[in-house]
Amino acid sequence: MSSYGSSVRVAEASRVAIFGGTHGNEMSGVTLVNLWVKNSAEIQRKRVETKPFITNPKAVEKCSRYVDTDLNRAFTPENLRYTRHTAGNVSAPAGDELPYEVQRAQEINRIFGPKGSPEAYDVVFDLHNTTSNMGCTLILESSKDHFNLQMMNYIKKAIAPASCLVLLNEHPLLKYSTSRSVAKHPVGLEVGPQPQGVLRSNIFEAMRVILKHALDFIELFNEGMEFPTCTVEVFRVLDRIDYPRDANGNIIAMVHPNLQDCDWEPLNPGDPMFQSFDGKTIRYQGLGTVFPTFINEAAYYEKQQAFVTTRREALVASAIRKV
Amino acid sequence: MEVDEVVRLPRLSRVAVCGGTHGNELSGEFLAKKKSRRRRSRKTPPRQSLNRCRMVSLSPRGPLPGAVPYEMIRSRELNATLGPKGSPGAVELVCDLHNTTANMGLCLIAYSDCDWICLHIFRHLQASAHSGKINPKSYSLDSVGKHGFAMEIGPQPHGVVRSNVYAAMKAGVQHMLDWVCFFNSGSTFEGEYVDVFTMIKHIDYPRDRETRKIRAAIHPQLQDQDFCLLHPEDPLFQTFSGETLRYKGDEALYPFFINECAYYEKGIALSLARKRRVMVPAIRVQTERERQAHMEEEEEE
């Protein structure tokens, strides 16, 4: 079937950024971006300007997730709009400095955005690690971003038989304002399991390979290659499940050994979900089978999240070619 | 000393099980809370170290002028509660609970190779297929008690509690407390040889001369191979350009604490140990008469 008449025309992706250190203790991205800031040969492609960038240098220096507040939640319209001139419209500490990460968000929005404008960067890859056993995961923010869907399809095929899954977070309440959201095509890259503050060579190399294929795709696209329509399997975020807690908010159970490390495997109603500290099993009480992920991510204890549930969907990506 | 001579040791009346010495090593924190031991439930930021009483700051801008670091205050409080260190009033046994990102399984860390109490506890735990090592150079919380050791379990990321690791630590602490009960009730523990690992040296990551940033990661063939013998010329690191750097020592040694998160800032990629055999004598608790006689001897001295 010829898709010539039905290709979606997408602007050439001439400006691409690779963000590392959005969380300062997620070491694969920090290390890769530092490497490429020093020598960017590996990430250069024809017809593309690719900029490696450390988004949260103070957190990287401290090797902590953040300094004042999570940078990867800071790109809200309110934060990006807030200045001393608009102070009357937005609640903020009067006379005090903004939280460091809000200042960074504004700076990043100036350089790589403005978010939502024609001047924004075409693609931003935001590199993350997780303590969860998620393997290689690409995070998509919109089911209608055909460029990203085609890129993710390309990457999945390129690394096969190794696995790279796609997590779609379009949930009206659970979606958050990421650093990559300043770009027209934001791509999250999450590789685990890796402890915070640790660099594992296998995780580092896996992330590097995925970026190589992503940049190859962009180069092919910019040269005029047409990518025919395809179907991409995604996992769509449904819900966030917290740890059982007591009246004071203290955690009273752990992820059950049957669920620990079982990211992306089906969780059925009645399956073990948590284990209390004295060994009692707490079971999943949902209505149907879900696919859990971000199971036991260290940074999410404070966000009241033991794991997220997803459902599998097949998205159809339109054929695309450059304008 | 004859092999079959039974060493009489004082009763272990007070045992402290301490969690949260490193505030992001969660198994011990949750276990200690569960056992309702008296502890101060306060979060310390990751990488602050109560062990070794380093002068560390809670504030990213450094300590306020004249302010005493929190961990220094805590170490004095704990010395008052569990010690004083080196005094007759100190608790008899301290067990300090830790996690590591390294694949070390359950590991007991003692600070002496002639602390027979700790070595017999280790043998008792070894019956459940655990390993142990001795680190005569460590200077840590466990030393405020008359006997002490750390129970280190990994791998577990900091800030995470894994149910299998928690279960292993809970079982380890329970075995230890069971042993203390047996000991206090008069059981004799037979002498035997015990294999221990003695720390010889640390190896740091290769670093950039100017920036001091690391320029290689633990080699994939070494990652997670704690306590598996490392021979000269075995792969040690993999640089970011893919080159393999090999172990250049003369002697095959046992690596441990391979890729422990908290040790990057201490300049330690891994530690190396020699395995050796220690003869542990038979022990049992002192009778009341023996205890009196021992006290009278000490007074005369």
UniProtKB/TrEMBL annotation, chain A:
Q: Which organism is it from?
A: Gasterosteus aculeatus aculeatus
Kindly give the SUPFAM superfamilies that the UniProt entry links to this protein: Zn-dependent exopeptidases
Alphabetized UniProt keyword annotations: Cytoplasm, Hydrolase, Metal-binding, Nucleus, Zinc
Q: Which family does it belong to?
A: Belongs to the AspA/AstE family. Aspartoacylase subfamily.
Q: Provide the residue positions that the database annotates as binding Zn(2+).
A: H23, E26, H128
* MF terms (GO), sorted A to Z: aspartoacylase activity; hydrolase activity, acting on ester bonds; metal ion binding
CDD domains per the UniProt record, alphabetical: M14_ASPA (cd06909)
Give the protein's recorded name: Aspartoacylase
Name the Enzyme Commission number(s) assigned to this protein.
Answer: 3.5.1.15
Report domain AstE/AspA barrel-sandwich hybrid positions.
Answer: 231-311
**Record's GO cellular component, any one?**
cytosol
Query: Where, subcellularly, is it found?
Result: Cytoplasm; Nucleus
Q: Which PANTHER family match?
A: ASPARTOACYLASE (PTHR15162)
Tell me where in this chain the Succinylglutamate desuccinylase/Aspartoacylase catalytic domain is found: 14-218
Cofactor binding note from Swiss-Prot or TrEMBL: Binds 1 zinc ion per subunit.
User: What cofactor does this one take?
Assistant: Zn(2+)
Residues engaged in binding substrate: N72, R73, Y176, S177, T178, S179, R180
Query: Known InterPro entries for this protein?
Result: AspA/AstE_fam, Aspartoacylase, AstE_AspA_cat, Aste_AspA_hybrid_dom
Superkingdom per UniProt: Eukaryota
TrEMBL record, chain B:
Reactions catalysed, as given in the entry: an N-acetyl-L-cysteine-S-conjugate + H2O = an S-substituted L-cysteine + acetate; an N-acyl-aromatic L-alpha-amino acid + H2O = an aromatic L-alpha-amino acid + a carboxylate
Q: What's the protein here called?
A: N-acyl-aromatic-L-amino acid amidohydrolase
Q: Name one GO molecular function term.
A: aminoacylase activity
The primary site where this protein sits is membrane
- EC numbers, comma separated: 3.5.1.114
Record's bilayer topology term = Peripheral membrane protein
> What is one GO cellular-component annotation here?
cytosol
Bound cofactor: record note: Binds 1 zinc ion per subunit.
**Active site location:** E152
Its subcellular locations are:
Apical cell membrane; Cytoplasm
User: Which taxonomic lineage is given here?
Assistant: Eukaryota, Metazoa, Chordata, Craniata, Vertebrata
The record places domain Succinylglutamate desuccinylase/Aspartoacylase catalytic at 41-178
